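Incident log entry.

Two folding requests arrived from the same account within the same minute. Monitoring flagged them as a possible duplicate submission, but the sequences differ. Recording both here for audit purposes.

Request one:
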Amino acid sequence: MRRGGRWLLLGVLLLCLSGSEGRARPLPMPILSTCDRFGRPPSALAAATHQPATFATPITAKRPMYYAVHTLFLDELTAAHATAIGFDTIIQVFPWRDLNPAPGLYVWEASDYMVQVAQAAGLHLVVRLDMPPEWARQAGAVPFDLAAYADFVTAVAQRYRGTIAAYVIWNEPNLAAEWSRSGGNLEDHWRRFDGQVADPADYVGVLGVAYQRIKTHDPAVLVVTAGLAPTNENSPRARDDRDFLRAMLAAGAADCFDVLGVHAYGFGQHPEAAEAVQSGLGLARIGEWQTILAQYGVDRPMWVKELGYTIGQGSQPWVTPAQQASYLSAALDRIQHDWPSVELVTVWNLVYGRAPEDEMSGYSLLNPDGSPRPAYERLRQQLSAPPINHPLPTPHKLGIHLLLDDGRHAWPVSIWRSHLVYARQAVGEWGYVIQLVRMDDLDVDRWQQFIDLCAELQLTPILRLATRYDTENNWWLPPPPDADNHYHTLAARYAQFITSLQWPTERHGVILLNEPNHGDEWGGAPDPAAYARFLIDVADALRAADPDVFILNAGLDPYTPHTGSTPFANGQYYRDAESFMDEMVAAYPHVFSHLDGWNSHSYPLGPFTEGPWQQEFQVDWMHDASNPHHIQPPAGIYNRGVNGYEWELFKLATYGLPALPVFITETGWRHAETTEPDAGDNGRVLPSALTVAHYLDLALNGNNHRYPAWPETGWTPWLTDSRVVAVAPFALNGRPEEWGHTNWLQLDSEGRISGVYPALEWWAK
């Protein structure tokens, strides 16, 4: 458990020069197992029979158990919160001092109640056994009466046979505070620094005695080691957890447990933080423990018994509530991905009713008044939702943006197939095609024809949900909210439409609107908070209706300035992408947790005219605009250029979010050639269509000395960047009066194809 002042971080960091940084060192020679170090302690109670309590059908241990939460007292309300979030397991202390307050006296009311609550909620129960009563404390290397502890363990194992999933034997014996003063006032202990750290062999002896007693009376139950406190300190008050574990294994601990319990705290760092951060104190410590087990040839699973981030601004590294939510979520993802030997992960903790300054409260998923924190909702979405598979699997990254309907003009369904045949040539088998669908055109029969063509031609469709274009004002209408300023009505319509389609692919890709930082995409004036609310409501409705949906955000325009309180020359307002994201998060801190992938509009400079090696970071503020939350990115991170998604991922990381798979659903260059001389997408000197084809080749593959006149460096080729899942240039087939310089197909005003531009030919190679 986490308690006030327990690690004294400053002291830990000052003492990290102890030489225990996890580097390779000779393994100590193994000694005879000390599971029997103390033998079987004599006791009149050892052979006594404790009648098992009567419960409903026992809960059997599930291996692997996936997600647990640590409680301080499991009541009905706490159990209801645990199941609502999606946890399947509870870890709960059965305090020795409370259950066995005097020699030979056992008080079972509280423990019986907690077992019954767990069973009624369908939760597996893992029980930790420590916190000795005052009558059992004693001086010595083992600071409690071991015979009495063995009797206590025996009594618990007998009474709850078949109803407990696992027992944890003690807590953090590498801290003097937990070994010598378990269950005491830890703040007082830290001030006095009395007691001692356990000798690892002594702890193994205690573990062995408990293991023997438990297995005798409940052979099927699992025995878990105490989680060690992650620390680099070696002093009278603490011992480096890695050294302690090595000494345990050298003393034969592997004979005395089924599961290695570990405590994996983040120390305020993002779960992906490098091992060097905080002198190795972070989530990556799991990898070191895994390596130590392998060095000693011990093949046992690990359970993370405590994982947490505190929002309490006390002596330990703290995070914001939004970071607590995103860091916990990212930690669960990383553990599952990077350390398969971990079978169970436990969030510390689920407690309410404590003072805000109480350290227990700082780690909780609940506020002191019992209301959920952002981490509660984030984990509920993560653990209760169906598992997300790899996004929209295709053999490669290529895609193309379609304009069968651009919101103002639609090509007749009769010519759709002829256009899609060229899309198939460009993107290959199961390549991506992105198509807009308006909210006033959710015609399942019409759009099923498009989906069926994708199935026939083996294309992966992604539908961009849109509102309706207002031709009088020349902008897209904002989505209509309900009376409470939510979007449940429109969200339900979108969900019914998406679930009515017969998709040709396992995952169903959906983009939620387009470039909402533009005034002309949101009724003349962007509204970051409203778009965040829309994203949350629609994503939740889609996911509830269709477990296979894959949610992408509206791509933001990185070239858009922030016009402040004064409109642009066209009378509309705009927000720069960073300000827009910051204001979304300010309104709804967990908004981006509703996404499965990140949609980026990573256009080249010019805009849309310069080579891929030309990139820059720039934010344009006009009039009185500013952003107090602006963060200058590291060198080499650009928001404008073909790798603009790198800045967007950087920005997401500043919110504590893990990197999402990137879908570039708009990018590309405009070309000088056109079938419509008065096309509306001109306005500057444009490169030739052949040059555009070469630029696309460079952006995809790099130069590799194939174009001697152009640079070799300055960008990351899309095909070599593992973060990028899809690249879909804009666009194949728009109405030539508006998109003549952008199109890849040479079209007339009726949509008939007269030829293709070099980009499509080059792409199709």
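Request two (distinct sequence, not a duplicate):
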Amino acid sequence: MSEATGSIAERLAEAARLHRAGSLDEAGALYEQVLAAHPENVDALHLSGLVAVARGRAGAGLARVCRALELAPGLADAWRNLGLALRSLGEREGAVAALRAAAERDPEDPDLQRLLGTALREAGRADEGRAVLEAAAARMPGDADLLLALASALEHAGRRGEAIRHLREVAFLRPDQADSHLLLGQMLRAEGMVDDAIASLRAARGLDPRRAHIALALADALHHQRRDGEAIAHAEAARELDPLHPGAAALEIGILTDLRRLPEALARADAALARFPGEPALHSARGLALMAAGRMEEAVAAATEAVALAPEDAGARLNLAAIVGHAGEPERALDIYLEAERLAPGSPALLANRGMTRLLLGDYETGFREYEARFAAQRPEERRRDITAPRLTPGTDIEGRTVLVHAEQGFGDNIQFARFVPMLAARGARVALEVPPGLGRLMGSVEGVFHVAEQGVRLPAHDYAIPVMSLAWFLGVTLDNLPATVPYLAPPEEVQARWDRLLGTALPERPRIGIAWSGNPNFAGFATRSIPFAVLNRIRAARPEAKFVVLQTQYDEATEREIEEADNLVVARAAIRDFADTAALINRLDLVIAGDTSLVHLAGALGRPAWVLLQRAADWRWLAGREDSPWYPSLRLFRQERHGDWDGVVAAAAAALAQHRFEI
């Protein structure tokens, strides 16, 4: 090699090093020195052209690259760099042509195949791009970057299962690459494999703890799993890592709201909005926190502001509709849901929530049909995969067929909708009934059932299956034809006889009044439905001669101490084994007074008198503004006039109790 040649090679090498390091001015100067001595040096031409493009001189830069290719049309690197330059300038079809030329000249370079596949997708030719990537991955297995691009293309095509398989391979090949773990975690979560997703996101966070995006993704996945204690720590970390990321603050507010740490949630919302006053997600999050705190006027105002800031955001409108409905304005909420449908046509969450609003307003025909969307709105991990029989739909001939009616939602829901099972049997079906644990003995009394199984027990063979709360839709139930004949449940005779003996000994005095103040603590609306135990003292004081029977079986130690100190309270939970026992006990009480719990559904299904103490934004099944229930003729409803005002509703019930005449 001559001294001159060696000098040119050295200068090109140094220029390339500076180029890679981002020192474009210095690299460009060296390229120009080489070109001054050798104007047709191919490497200096195309590399200096890239520098020119990067510095905003696209025309001159591309001309140099093209000149290099005229001199050396077989140079794959020059075609590659031309493609990248055109891609950076938004010339998508030109980028595809250049990268295809590069890949044809070096078909065994996986990076060229990856770039070509990606460029095709960016040019709107996703199927071609995916085909290139699939062929290259089959020909050159084990290249992590190629597999990563293929996984992204497959996910874009809706083939997420295959994408996840490739991403698992990438994570194995490059266990120290945070991006592959992050993408895998995001896809696993989208597929409903949330525990695996959390593991991948933890790996990504461990590898790159300074990236707010990873911390936020992990916090969101943990929040999705109701692991909010862990979620809040990562959400706070995301906010600290990127104080300018309003999404981190919005997630943190949501988690604090779900944790019922409402003062903290509202303080965080106020601080975030002081910094980002125009961020709609923060106004929505604040609105939901205010709703949870019972500050309904402020909640509606916050959610309205979110919609004003983001009028095309369907999520903001859905939140507003939910808050307005909770504020006791179901007609307005329905109007907002109808507006939101333009932005999110066919959204399962929208349809399900709008369906419940229609049900609250008494439109059962449309409401039950729209409420069927609740299954599509479920998270993937919540969907049942153990029932594979065809879904029973209206119009299906069930004469002589075995139909499984399977459990759904809470105890009260299963009790309420069991009334429809005899109608199914009357159409000629053999009905097997699955119920939550604890309801088995009682539900054996439902007319027309040949088999009852509690969840977790092997189910009998069946031709069709239907969730219990879909029976109303299947049967075409409206307010006019709603079956309300009670009782439709009864405890076994031996269970009733046992409780008759127990009550004859323990509660000889009358009247006997059952009370309960809260339901399932795992229910999302537990806090707003629950009545402070101390507030119920007013009811007990209204009839000091009565014996009050605690029907509730779950309460904290502080409440237990209060119960022990009361002189007219009797605790029954030690003798209650399941709902059959509770039913037998209620059958021998003169009245039940309780919040919105499964116990009032049970009392209604038994045809026993019960008074229901309802929050202002009561559940759809109690309809709007009524003091009676078309579902249960023996129930009387007492409603809050103001949000959170349990004193008022209990005072009304106590006054009624003081005047009530018991038939003993």
